[in-house]
Amino acid sequence: MISKRIVLHFPHRLVDQPIVCNLVKDYELEFNILKAYVTPREEGLLVLELSGEDKNYEQGIQYLREAGVKVQPLSQDIIRNEERCTHCGVCVPICPTGALVVEPLTRKVNFYDNKCIACELCVKACPVRAMEVHF
Amino acid sequence: MAKTIKEINEKIEKGEAVVVTAEEIIDIAEEKGIEKAAKEVDVVTTATFGPMCSSGAYFNIGHAKPKIKLGGGRAYLNDVPVYTGFAAVDVYIGATALADDDPRNKVFPGEFKYGGGHVIEDLVAGKNLRLVATAYGTDCYPRKRLETLINIKDLNEAVLFNPRNVYQNYNVAVNLLDKIIYTYMGVLKPKLGNANYCSAGQLSPLLNDPYYKTIGIGTRIFLGGGVGYVVWQGTQHNPTVKRKDNGVPQAPAGTLAVLGDLKGMKPEWLVGTTMQGYGVTLTVGIGIPIPILNEEICRYTAVKDEEIWAQIVDYSEAYPQGKPGSLGEVNYAQLKSGEITIQGKKVPTGNLSSYPKAVEIANTLKEWIKQGDFLLSEPVAYLPGPETGYTFKPLKERPLE
């Protein structure tokens, strides 16, 4: 079994195509939509948690790529600007998934990007704007 | 045996002073006892790094040719208005100033992406800033308009002058309403969704000198990465609030006005800050040395998080309406555990003040002193303490007629 959080970028020509449903039908993958929108340039963006058997997962991703969808891991899109972060910790109770946690000994804030669901609540709550979105 | 600041400075100059942080003194005092700790330790360094809205900077831009008198006119830095009510080319920029065309809270909650605090950070970082000014023109200052880039290195004086910093203790902010609120204490989730506090607790300067016995007017400090001074009590200084037996106030109490050469400061310690739905401010790094003159002062500096108590205040109703009352009292050890209990509910906590950065400042100041680069100064006058009856009064509104 494999489960990953991924970001899919759909070009304009694919925005009205039923693509994700084929991941279920043909590759027996499960998905949980974390975020979805169509940009002003009519490109689609979908953030998914995708799970299934290793082989099916690989084939599913292969199918998406061949169809023209750009696939990348979510962790590349929500980034903490380490130079700006002051480790104050005001983001910690804002994060719904426990991706931002105070390390008890040093009191520094750890960012676990594998737990991040890109809800972006921390982005505007951060007083020094250290959390950045790069979709 | 009591020590004097002069004696401590002699030790610093010889490189023999024993300097520890306000965190380290806790263990030393526990292991060795106050008497021995007071003998052995010469200086305890304290620090804080949090948003401090009553901050700003003044500078002199030098005279243009032909000359312009900004006094009585208008001037903007990167579109943010600066105060011009001084002589010809002195201006003051406040941390919370916003561009005239900033949308503010028109689309709620406002984003407040750039303001006075960010201008100060950019100035200290050595970036060029756009100065645009208009004036009415006089015989001796004929020019009516000025547009130029300015840079900190070309300014005559650039001085950080903060009328209120380093609050001695602060509220724990919560929201009792069933909708989210946006405050200067951060985003507060509905129905006790989170509790935000803002203090370095056991490292915070005035919590280590609760009766202002060493920190006074003229105290030399770490300010924004450079050197500054305490110049007065801060605005809203309120030494008469209730205190615990250890002397530590249980609510916001003393404050400091501080000043220092902006040219010696670093953007890392003066950070432009945004509070969503509220406005902009400046996060300021301050470190203050406390000379261990006697056992009493040593005992104050050994204060621990669990001995410092703060009030839980509702920011949806009690705070904005100026209603007194607290939802309870918690200590900083509880706050730092990540969760407190309010009205039977477990509430996660968040700090607006960075403890790791405060530790870094306390250690930096410790190194400066140990290396003999930073001598302690004797206050020329002391701040009003609780015995003076000095209080922070509310506004008495009176009809204009």
From TrEMBL, chain A:
Coiled coil: none annotated. Keywords: 4Fe-4S, Iron, Iron-sulfur, Metal-binding. Gene3D superfamilies: 3.30.70.20, 3.30.70.260. InterPro entries: 4Fe4S_Fe-S-bd, 4Fe4S_Fe_S_CS, ACT-like_dom_sf, NIL_domain, PSI_iron-sulfur_center. It comes from the Bacteria. PROSITE patterns: 4FE4S_FER_1, 4FE4S_FER_2. Residues 76-105, 107-135 form the 4Fe-4S ferredoxin-type domain. GO terms for molecular function: 4 iron, 4 sulfur cluster binding; metal ion binding. Pfam families: Fer4_7, NIL. This is (Fe-S)-binding protein. It comes from bacterium (Candidatus Ratteibacteria) CG01_land_8_20_14_3_00_40_19.
TrEMBL record, chain B:
Residues 17-376 form the Homocysteine biosynthesis enzyme sulfur-incorporation domain. InterPro entries: HcyBio. It holds the Pfam family HcyBio. This is Homocysteine biosynthesis enzyme sulfur-incorporation domain-containing protein. It comes from bacterium (Candidatus Ratteibacteria) CG01_land_8_20_14_3_00_40_19. The lineage of its organism: Bacteria, Candidatus Ratteibacteria.
